[in-house]
Design goal:
Blueprint (H helix, E strand, L loop, with lengths): L1 E9 L9 E10 L5 E8 L8 H7 L12 H13 L3 E4 L2 H15 L9 E3 L16 H7 L12 H17 L10
Parallel strand pairs: 1-4, 4-5
Antiparallel strand pairs: 1-2, 2-3
Length: about 180
């Protein structure tokens, strides 16, 4: 089973006027837990970045000069995600995947329909009051090192999330159909 862990950084909230500015997708082999390959790129959004979004991820417009536009990256995203059996993302079902699908449709591609698991929505067990956990809270519950100073870089967030995901599978919190 091939599992894609993904995260995006964007110019703002889920809204047709906003764009993806960074995407990281790692492909893991479920049995060996080995990361086999990575798709990582920043993207020219062809628009400004909302101040609130920039405060979260720290990516400025100057950081995106010369980066490819989404239309050039889209076929690579589609091919990469087409090779996996499951997509794992923290807030993926309500943000990352809808954002990717919005961008794909905007550029003439079909939506991604690969099954997904959202470690945020399925991670309520990680908080004492049952609220959805942020990634730091999920890492704390799974004893995965989390550095807030490095958070919100797509690659860092995916690596930490996948450490939690695999522990969650081993500990019985995340259930996969057809997996051992």
């Amino acid at each position: 089973m091939k599992i894609a862990g993904l995260d995006t950084e964007t110019t703002g909230l889920l809204n047709p006027e906003h764009r993806i500015i960074e995407i990281y997708i790692g492909m893991w082999d479920f049995e060996t837990r080995a990361r086999e390959r990575v798709l990582k790129t920043r993207i020219d959004p062809e628009r400004t970045i909302a101040a609130d979004a920039q405060r979260v991820h720290g990516i400025s417009s100057a950081d995106l000069v010369g980066m490819p536009k989404f239309k050039a990256v889209a076929p690579h995203i589609v091919a990469f995600l087409g090779d996996c059996d499951l997509i794992v993302a923290h807030n993926g079902d309500e943000f990352d995947l809808p954002f990717i699908n919005m961008e794909l449709e905007r550029t003439g591609y079909s939506k991604i329909t690969t099954p997904s698991m959202d470690t945020m929505l399925l991670g309520r067990h990680a908080t004492p009051n049952g609220k959805v956990p942020n990634l730091g809270e999920l890492c704390f519950a799974y004893d995965v090192h989390y550095d807030p100073a490095r958070a919100h870089a797509a690659s860092y967030d995916v690596e930490r999330m996948m450490d939690c995901f695999f522990k969650g599978v081993d500990w019985g919190w995340f259930k996969l159909k057809g997996a051992a």
